Amino acid sequence: MIRTPDADVLARIRRLELHARSIVQGYLSGMHRSLHHGFAVEFAQHREYSPGDDIKHIDWKVYARNERYYLKQYELETNLVGYFVVDRSESMAYGSGELNKYDAACVSALALSYMMVQQSDSVGFAMFDDALRNVLRPSGQPSQLKDIGRLMGPTPGREKTRTGAILHELAERLTRRGIVAIFTDAFDEVSDVLAGVKHLRHAGHEVVFFHVMDSAELDFPFQQSTLFQGLEQLPDLMTDPRGIRESYIEEVTAFRTELQKGCRNLHCDYVLLRTDAEIGRVLANYLSVRMAR
Hints:
The chain is of the alpha/beta class. The protein has two domains: 7-34 and 79-292, von Willebrand factor, type A domain (Rossmann fold), CATH 3.40.50; 41-76, no CATH class. Helix content is 42%, strand content 22%. It is built from nine helices and ten strands. Strands 5-4-3-6-7-10 form a six-stranded mixed beta sheet, with helices on both faces. The protein has a two-stranded antiparallel ribbon with strand order 1-2. Strands 8-9 form a two-stranded antiparallel sheet. Strand 6, helix 6 (190-202) and strand 7 form a beta-alpha-beta unit. The longest helix is centred in the last third of the chain and has 25 residues, at 241-265.
C-alpha cells in the first residue's frame, strides 16, 4: 500500500520549493553555469599560436621539440553532475530562529539543484544520518526537483550522525566525477570528516562543504540558567551559560577553524551557512567568488 504524505509534510515541501525558487529567481538568476568555473577542465587539442593569443596557454614542451608555438586548448566536460548531500541527523533539527539547520540545508541544496537543472546539468541527491538514505541517481529532468523536494519533506529523526563514514561510502558509490556539495553541521570527529572529504577528492570529485550552523550555536546568547537538551544520544545539561560562554566560544571557534583549514588543505571550498543569514545572498556570494577565481 502506498502511503500519501500528510498535510503538514506537503505544506513543508511546498514552503521549501517556494523558498528555493525565490532564491534562484532573485539572487541566482545571473549565475548561469557558474558552478562550472574551476571544475572539469579537460585538455582537448593543440592549435598553432596566432599574434594576440594569451601566451599562458603555450605548450612549452611542444616548443622545445620543434621550436614552434602551439596553444593548449581546453574544454569543459558537458553535462556537469552535482551531487547534493544533506545531513538529517537529530542535531540538524535545532533552530533558534525562522529556519532550523535542516531547513537551511534543504533550501540551499534545492536552490542550487534548480539552477543546475535550468542550465541542462544533472543533479543527484542523498541524505544521511547514521546511514546513507534516499539516494537519487543524477538526472537533468525537471521531475528530479520534485523528487528531491519530496524526500526533504519529513523532518530529522533521532539518529546520530556518521559523517566521515558516509563520505567514504559516497566516494565508493559515485561512479562519475562531479561536484559534491555537502550540507552538515559536522558534529562528528573533524579528522573523520576530513578523511571522508579526502577520499572524495582522491576519487576526482570537487567538494563544496557547506557548514550549517545556527546563530545561537555560534553566538551563544543565553543569559539565564538553562537546560540544554542533549541531541544525538548526548545527555541533557543544566548550567549557567554566562559561566561557560567564553570557553564555549573558544571551542566552537577552534572547531570551525580546524574544519576550515582542513578543507583548504584538501582544496575543498568551505562555506559557513548561518541559519540567520539570507541564504540567497550566501549562495550568490560564494558563486561570485568561484567565478572570479
